[in-house]
Amino acid sequence: MSSISRLQAPVKTIGFVVDWMDGVYQNQILEGARDAALDRGVHLLCFAGGMLRNELRGGARRNATFDVIGPESVDGVILMAGTIGNRVGTDELLAYCERFGRIPRASIAVELPGIASILVDNRTGIESAITHLIRTHSCQKIAFVRGPDANPEAELRYGVYRSTLTANGIEIDEQLIAPGEFLAESGRRAVATFYDDRKQRPDAIVAANDQMAIGVLEALAARGIRVPDDVAVVGFDDIEEARFTSPPLTTVRQPLYEQGREAVRLVLSGVYGGSLPERVTLHTEFVARRSCRCFAEGSRLPAAGFPKRASFEAALVERRQLVLADLARAARGSFGILGSGWEARLVGALTSDLRGDTTTAFRLHLEGMLIKLLEQRSDFNLSHDVLSVLRKHLLSCVEADPERRAQVEDLFHEARLLIGQVSERAQAQQKLAIAGWAGALVQTGAALLASTDVSQLQAAVAEHFPLLGIKSCYLALYGADIESPSELLIAYNENARPLRLESNERRPRFLPRKLLDAGVAKGFYVATVYSAERVLGYLLLDLGKRDGVVYEALREFLNAALRGVELNRLSRATQPPGP
Length: 579
Description:
Layout: E1 13-18, H1 24-39, E2 43-48, H2 60-63, E3 76-79, H3 81-84, H4 90-97, E4 105-108, E5 116-120, H5 122-135, E6 142-145, H6 152-167, E7 177-178, H7 184-197, E8 204-207, H8 210-222, E9 232-234, E10 251-253, H9 256-271, E11 279-282, E12 285-287, H10 312-318, H11 320-331, H12 342-355, H13 361-375, H14 382-397, H15 402-449, H16 454-464, E13 472-477, E14 487-493, H17 511-517, E15 523-530, E16 535-542, H18 548-574
Parallel strand pairs: 1-2, 1-3, 2-15, 3-4, 4-5, 5-11, 6-7, 6-8, 8-9
Antiparallel strand pairs: 10-12, 13-14, 13-16, 15-16
Helix pairs in contact: 1-9, 5-6, 7-8, 10-14, 11-14, 12-13, 13-15, 14-15, 15-16, 15-18
């Protein structure tokens, strides 16, 4: 009996099926699923097997990753149907899912009959965004960058674009519609199509997702076209990058993290014998930022008028509840990390400085808020909106006191500068962190690619993977077929604890779960390695909270290194014996 088979009964394992992990959209949903799995004490295997029927990045050889999925490896399956199925229709995707048999399943972003589906309210979100452009910013010439034709969400967003223009009396202009693939390059191509090929000058460009909108921003900047002065830009998703573009991207927020958590909840309900609902729809929210011309200082509505008072404190007390409510609305629920009553504490610190009780209370309190928001990755840009609301109310309270009014303006000027300083500091720290792991990734890649035999490859993994926070790595080569035992070419874990595996426990569909049960990790990234002709095996990397691009880069490095090792071995085998 092996050391693993003597362990207690395994915990449940959920499979998360995705195309690649180097996309922000996928990673934010995966983060929600990973956290939910940890909270519920279950394991998670992320199968990154590429898009179906797509020859890019390995094509069918990458799709072979999904062959490892079965009742031996998982108890339930979450399908990122909106990404793996971008090149196939719903019927073909549903047929493909039949390979998973009776395993409880949940689909994200595409409604699949008979399978629990987690969807978002695309219609309300995109309609709100386009209506905002028309009614708030008087846009009439609104261009649209579509998503993949086979993606139901993309087609729905495109249909709502057309119907919203028609409902507002705007004629559809086919010259203002460009194809897209949900990639930044699609946004860059769309700008070239509109401005270079068709000689169009739209008032606004709406993209069916944020990645394409970011590509639009980049292409416009390269042409010297100013956003939002010359053209407004709007996306969809509210990925983390959208908050840090220049200018910050107006978009429609869909609850990416929450979709991952909800998918785990639904699948586990089926795993434990509960019934699975046909559909769960989550809300979307229009998020106005500067790329659509919102939140310039003069664009806000003035605060409601109140009788003038000799004391600003009396005026502030009179409108206190309105001030607090407006601050909460400006934060849009994103400041919950600051704790209950953050609005009152912010107003209290400002009031203390204006009374002369303190001189730096407002600045110090605001700085603490900003740092906490950045640490928790909340929408930092909303701090500008909160300050604008607070400033409007305070100025109304000091209308009769020019000296106090000047003091208020000075405090808010300092606050704006502080936001800029904290933002720059955070960006500098982020760049240092990126540079750190990027440098380690380059060194790791160089070491792997320089390996000429298996022992060198194993040594490179053991030396360099800890620098990237990778705690375990298993590279398994297939036997005669997928049902045959695998050869463990690399079996690295940071504890250097040897694991004895019987031959049946090395079968591809058994191995991931056996390693999880052995306590090697609580989750794995799973993807195939392959040559130009065939699938060679598959890679397992422990699934931690790190950027998905690290996993994809390591898979590419190991894939290339493995081919190099094999070529060297064949070369030595065919050389004539020496004298």
